[in-house]
Design brief:
globular
């Protein structure tokens, strides 16, 4: 099974990046072919239309998303919305080639606000791509991070359960 893990924060020292690195490492232990797309590295170009030429990092990220059976997406909440970097990334994806893929998500916020709204917005985006979304999203606040490490054991367990549940959904749909 091919899996892509997406950290959708454009910030260099993003908390979202920390949680999605945990997701990436955990998913690698599941005997899956896993790729990591980290939008904080700033290599994904701003979408300018289908006729334009894009850099290699952008092409590779697009290919990895299109080839993956499972998408594990982590997004911060910015102004009551998911990351615009995530929306930009999905401008490259061809919705005609994504039907039946499965996605799980983790959402990071400064406080306990807006999680359900952002989950709904990401689910709507994924519905456009005909992607089946695991309804058990993980909601985390910055309190789960200390000294630039995901330190909350409960948060780790919930992330692991999201990965397991999403992979299980994908396996059942492939059979």
């Amino acid at each position: 099974m091919k899996v892509v893990v997406i950290s959708a924060s454009p910030r260099k020292n993003a908390n979202t990046q920390l949680i999605m690195k945990h997701v990436f490492e955990y998913t690698k232990s599941k005997d899956a072919d896993v790729k990591f797309i980290n939008l904080s590295e700033g290599q994904i170009e701003c979408y300018r239309g289908p006729e334009e030429e894009y850099n290699e990092a952008t092409k590779n990220a697009t290919r990895d998303i299109m080839d993956a059976d499972v998408w594990l997406i982590g997004s911060p909440i910015y102004n009551s919305f998911f990351s615009s970097a995530l929306k930009n990334l999905f401008e490259y994806v061809n919705y005609k080639k994504t039907e039946g893929k499965v996605a799980g998500m983790a959402i990071m916020a400064a406080g306990n606000i807006g999680f359900i709204d952002v989950q709904t917005l990401i689910t709507q985006l994924l519905s456009y791509f005909r992607v089946i979304t695991n309804p058990k999203a993980v909601f985390l606040t910055v309190d789960s991070i200390s000294n630039n490490v995901l330190s909350d054991e409960s948060a780790k367990e919930r992330l692991n359960e999201m990965v397991d549940g999403t992979l299980e959904m994908a396996t059942k749909l492939q059979n």
